[in-house]
Amino acid sequence: PLSKNLHRLFLLRIIVIVAQCLTFALAHWVLEMKLPWAEMLSVTAMLALLNLATWLRLRRNWPVSSVEFFAQLLIDVFALSALLYFSGGSTNPFISLYLLPLTIAAAALPWVYTWLMAAVTISCYSLLLFYYVPLPHDHDDHGSEFVMHVSGMWLAFVLSTVLIAWFVVKMGISIRERDKDLALAREQALRNE
C-alpha cells in the first residue's frame, strides 16, 4: 500500500509544483510583487529534483517503508516552510497547506508518524509567526487587530492539526481492525466449508 501512496504523493507533488509556478507567475507579472524569487524558485527546483528521484525510485520494485514515506512528507513540509518564509510567513494565506501532509500521514502511516508530523507542522507554523520575509504590503495601519487575526489563524491551525491527527488515526485503526475481522471471517468460512 505504501508504494501506491508514494506514487500518489509523486502525482500530488507534480500538481503542487505546477501550482507553485503558476502562483509565482501571477505574483511576479500580474501583481508585480517584489519577493526573493531566486530563493523561491530554487526551493521549487529542489522539489522537482526530489520528484524526479521519487519517479526513478518508483520504477524499482523495492518496498516503500513507513520511514521513507514519512521522510518524503517531511521534505514537502520543509519546502513549504521555506516558501512561506520567503513570502510572508504566517501572514501568507497558503499557510493552511500544512494540513495536507498531516492528513496524508494520518491516512497512510501509523499513529506515531502522524503525531510526529503534527508536532513538526505546528513547530514550523509557530516559527513562521516570528521569522519570515514580510510580504511587500504594510499591515501597520491595522495594528493589534492584524496580530490578533494571525494569532487566531495559528490557534485554528493547531486545533485543526490535533483534530485531524486524532480522528483520522482513529478512523484508520477502525478500518484496519474491520479489514482484519473480515479476513478472519473469510478464513473461518473457508474452514467451515
Structural class: mainly alpha
Rounded Rg: 20 Å
* N-to-C SSE string, H for helix and E for strand: HHHHHH
* Cα shape: globular
Overall pLDDT confidence: 87
Strand content: under 5%
Summarize the structure.
The protein has 193 residues and is mostly helical. It has helices at residues 2-30, 37-58, 66-85, 99-108, 111-128, 144-192.
What characteristics describe this protein?
globular, 6 helices, 193 residues, mainly alpha, single chain, 77% helix
Describe this structure in words.
- The structure is a single chain.
- The protein contains 6 helices and no strands.
- The chain has about 190 residues and is mainly α.
- Helix 1 (about 1-30) runs antiparallel to helix 2 and helix 1 packs parallel to helix 3.
- It is globular, with a radius of gyration of 20 Å.
- The two termini are about 30 Å apart.
How is this fold's topology laid out?
Elements: H1 2-30, H2 37-58, H3 66-85, H4 99-108, H5 111-128, H6 144-192
Helix pairs in contact: 1-2, 1-3, 2-3, 3-4, 3-5, 4-5, 4-6, 5-6
